[in-house]
Amino acid sequence: MRYDGKVAIITGGTSGIGAGCVRAFVGAGATVVFCSQHPGEGDGMAAELTAQGPGAARFIACDVRDPAQVRALVAETARSYGRVDCLINNAGWHPPHRPIDDFPVEEFRALLELNLVSVFVACQAALPHLRQTRGSIINIASLVGSMGQLHATTYVATKGAVIALTKALAIDEAAHDVRVNSVSPGNIFTPLWQEALDTAPDPARARADGDAAQLFGRMGTPDEAGRLCLFLAAEATFTTGVDHLLSGGAELAYGRKSRKA
After folding, report:
1. For residue 145, what is the domain's CATH number?
2. For the segment 207-259, what is each residue's pLDDT rounded down to a tens digit?
3. Which active-site residues does the annotation give?
């Protein structure tokens, strides 16, 4: 797959799935502007990937919870490179698992700002440029946004909303030949997964359970996620409004669901 001469914006691009997307798009010849909220966090990564080519990478610090910073990120990309062909909304967070009783309303509101409102703002800012290039948007949702997850009401709500936003926006933007899709990863081994293992009572058992949740007996990788996103941007020219499961079959087959003895 090639994406030569194209310009992509990727939020949350310094680690995990976002970093996998940056690597895939640079490797396909694109210019990639990626961000995180920590100044200087991605400068070394950008230099390394640019040296490898054939595309190029540039890091810009941006806290996606601040609409002004998101708009500035898009504006700077368009100013510097003259176009925007793809937006990947990846920045987000999964809180620790807790029953609904233990989630403060304020925390839920903050998570909505990060996982959902930032996606809306970035789409709104990028669409004037994407309409000119007939580009595409890829929103990173989650498998649990459609199937649910134990003790994760707030996270599931935000990701379910991302899937719904994607479908609604795909309808609106079809008139401009802009495609809007989402990717719903299941268990992808990212730094967030490693953090969960580090705090688990039995990390080895937690990792084994994570691997066993997929038909392939392993978790996915950020690079596999990056390649799927590249395919959606570069090749899937008749695909819009679709939520693509990147799950290794985790949602398939019967399994014991009851938590009763």
Report:
1. 3.40.50.720
2. 999 999 999 999 999 999 999 999 999 999 999 999 999 999 999 998 888 88
3. 155
